[in-house]
Amino acid sequence: MDRGTELLVAAEKGDADTVRLLLETTSLDADFCSQDDKRTALHRAAGYGHLAVVETLLKAEANPLIQSAAGRTALHDSCIGGFDRVVKVLVRYMKRGRAMDTQDKDGQSACHLAAFHGELDCFNILADKGADCGLHDNLMRTPGHLAAMRNHPSILQSLFYKGINLQVVDSQGRAPIHFAAQHGGVEALAALIQCDCPTTVGDSFGCRPHHYAAAHNHVNCLRLLIKNGCHPEGRDGSGRTPAHMAAQYGGMTCLHWLLEKGINPNIQDDQGYTPLHYAGEAGSAECFNCCLQHDAELSIRNNRDDTALDTAKLAGHPVVIEKALKSELKCRHCLHKYNFLEWEKANQPSQVERGISHAGESAYVSPIPPATRAASQLEKNRQKQQKLAAKKASQDKKGAKTDVKLPRRDLAAKYYGEHVGDIYKLDF
């Protein structure tokens, strides 16, 4: 092993003593790199988070701005690994203007890579030191696009609080919210909605975020977008609805959910295609069967006068679509629903169980039962006692003394019921 290779291996393993010894005792350049990938010892140490080696190399005047064959600096590599302490050290040594915004061959800066990998600490260090957090790569994507793509809501919130525009579009007119919907990032999508990003914005082709969610079968994203303003039958630039997109690209779960919500299964786009046409053309048997289960019509023709079965034959899928037509291949969600309904029907409660259940429920809503005969008799006794008491008080007031015979208490009727009360007559 030659001295240069030994330096690279020591840096990669984090052996700071060997690195220091090689630099002090040999004429090796601190910026020595391999010929294949052009990565220096500083690249390797930064990529593995070896802080001591990074500091040793920088003190030996290693250049942190050297780019590898991929166009990346040591700062790029440290952000990929999320080594925030290394990032702090490298930023201190980058004294030249916009050195932190050095872009690789894809046009991505260290900010792009920190956002893509969800390294919030590294991202905040770069942003606080003045890095451009809204820089575009070769495809016009910003760090916000990459954070939305990889479902990193914390990065998106950090961008929003720093005043970065989260509605900027890439080369195809897509905003970060399109990327979140396309890649199924529900948390990122929710964060963007909270940051006041519109949900109905279209890209260069008129596709809205919920079209992307349906096409890639991200039903939770689709539900969230429809809940926040997207119309379930909203059309793109070609007149396609989310149901068309789901059928065309095999998004069976989204298609089933939309049909269950009551959208028109026979809705046509600008070419006269229904979701059934797209399912047949794509050879998606489950989507085709799902449309049939929700009353899609086979007789509808597109602008070329083709039915759904015709499009399936023209696309080379007659056999599989024929099986879907005969329900030999079924939508698994429709099948699950059917099985559940059959189970529920077969396991209906018996008449006795329904009676018990009804009695249990009625116990809380039944009116107070009417007074018994014994209770009524007691009430009459009480009223008579009140009258006698009032009469006695009136006589006492006049000075007249009259013996009054008070009634007996009908204890038999009170405690033993009306059949006893009939026997023991009150004597007044």
TrEMBL record:
Ranges: ANK repeats: 37-69, 106-138, 139-171, 172-204, 205-237, 238-270, 271-303
Pfam family, one: Ank_2
Region (Disordered): 373-405
Keyword Nucleotide-binding: no
Keyword Repeat assigned: yes
Biased composition (Basic and acidic residues): 393-405
InterPro entries, sorted: Ankyrin_rpt, Ankyrin_rpt-contain_sf
Keywords: ANK repeat, Repeat
Protein name, per record: 26S proteasome non-ATPase regulatory subunit 10-like isoform X2
Name of the encoding gene: LOC118406747
